[in-house]
Design brief:
Elements: E1 5-7, H1 15-19, H2 26-36, H3 40-43, E2 44-47, E3 63-65, E4 68-74, E5 76-77, E6 81-82, E7 85-86, E8 91-92, H4 100-104, E9 107-111, E10 117-122, E11 135-137, H5 138-164, H6 184-188
Antiparallel strand pairs: 1-11, 2-4, 3-4, 5-6, 7-8, 9-10
């Protein structure tokens, strides 16, 4: 674990892009859509609990539709990996615009019991070979982590509002309307929930 740096060098094995399910926030989705010109319906999928591991039942980002639960994820092909993985170049095709979760991987925040920042370490329970090479400064990682926390607060509120809606034929894809189709003016004002 490192308070100021953590040692890691990416080996471009692509396991993070093939073995890990990426759960973007609405802010990530908007950033990707703007950068690529793709509609989120083209690069997102909604997974039921039996298709995803390590997401607690109590996680506030589960979308509820007709008695079922779903979570928003970047599309993945079981053999080819993430929708945005360029297998020929062995890198993310939206690297500069990728979700914050991807930017933080394979780093894991360490906090004290009181919630104070202790440092970062490498995830032990992931597919990443975690080659400990170069010193990566933790300051920018912590900044990304704090930014992601803010996005998750907005995300959780959007999900809460969505889950309260009751209508026939409700689908998880309808969630996109809350921040894509109906939200252009709110986004321009910097507020998803206005």
């Amino acid at each position: 674990m490192g308070k100021n740096t953590v040692r890691f060098t990416c080996q471009r094995c692509m396991k993070c892009c093939t073995d890990v399910v990426c759960l973007p926030t609405p802010a990530d989705v908007i950033r990707i859509a703007r950068a690529t010109g793709e509609h989120p319906r083209d690069f997102l999928e909604f997974l039921p609990p039996d298709e995803i591991e390590h997401v607690a039942v109590s996680d506030p980002t589960w979308l509820k539709c007709n008695g079922e639960r779903y979570i928003m994820a970047l599309k993945r092909d079981p053999r080819k990996g993430c929708h945005f993985l360029d297998r020929r170049k062995k890198r993310c095709s939206i690297y500069e615009h990728r979700p914050i979760l991807c930017r933080l991987f394979p780093f894991k925040l360490q906090e004290t019991r009181e919630g104070a920042f202790r440092g970062f370490t490498l995830h032990k329970d992931t597919c990443c070979p975690a080659y400990q090479g170069e010193a990566v400064p933790t300051g920018p990682l912590y900044g990304l982590y704090r930014e992601d926390c803010g996005h998750h607060e907005d995300y959780n509120e959007l999900v809460r509002v969505f889950n309260q809606k009751r209508y026939k034929g409700k689908r998880p894809e309808d969630f996109l309307a809350m921040f894509i189709d109906e939200g252009a003016e709110r986004r321009a004002a910097g507020n998803y929930l206005a």
